[in-house]
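Input record, target 12 of the design panel.
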């Protein structure tokens, strides 16, 4: 188990050939809404496939039907090549405050390049670029997790489909009423 997010959980998987992958599986919130997990998987896959610079972002390689023993059901899961390196957050924790300016400048550089490039070339806005969604593998710095991304169109943007509690505060809507 590597991480949890608004869409689901990410796990590390080793294939028979020895290659490592990150498998992003929908969580209970996404699965509780008919068709939403499949739609979200397809949207995120399509968005990452639009990015033609693998040095800028970790790009999904496919969608698989993953069997979940707890529910005895198959669910759509995104497959990514496993990204070597550490998140920018962990890099800051490991190195302490002395290289903070360097790492922070890398983050700002990535943010600027990511948003400018994606918006200009592909009309994609990441919308959740943060310390946990940036992987540092010197000298590369790449964006992860395009689950919150929007495709920009001349008529506006598509809607977000992730759980409100995982959105950045400026995008979060009021939480749904609890039972």
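The sequence produced for target 12 reads:
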């Amino acid at each position: 188990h590597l991480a949890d997010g608004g869409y689901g959980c990410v796990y590390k998987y080793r294939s028979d050939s020895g290659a490592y992958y990150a498998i992003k599986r929908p969580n209970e919130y996404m699965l509780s809404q008919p068709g939403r997990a499949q739609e979200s998987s397809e949207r995120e896959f399509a968005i990452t496939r639009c990015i033609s610079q693998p040095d800028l972002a970790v790009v999904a390689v496919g969608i698989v039907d993953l069997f979940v023993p707890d529910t005895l059901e198959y669910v759509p899961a995104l497959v990514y090549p496993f990204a070597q390196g550490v998140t920018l957050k962990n890099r800051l924790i490991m190195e302490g405050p002395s290289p903070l300016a360097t790492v922070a400048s890398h983050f700002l550089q990535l943010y600027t390049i990511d948003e400018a490039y994606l918006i200009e070339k592909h009309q994609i806005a990441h919308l959740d670029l943060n310390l946990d969604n940036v992987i540092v593998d010197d000298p590369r710095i790449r964006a992860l997790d395009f689950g919150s991304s929007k495709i920009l169109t001349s008529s506006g943007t598509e809607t977000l489909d992730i759980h409100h509690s995982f959105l950045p505060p400026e995008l979060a809507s009021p939480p749904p009423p609890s039972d």
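The radius of gyration is 17 Å.
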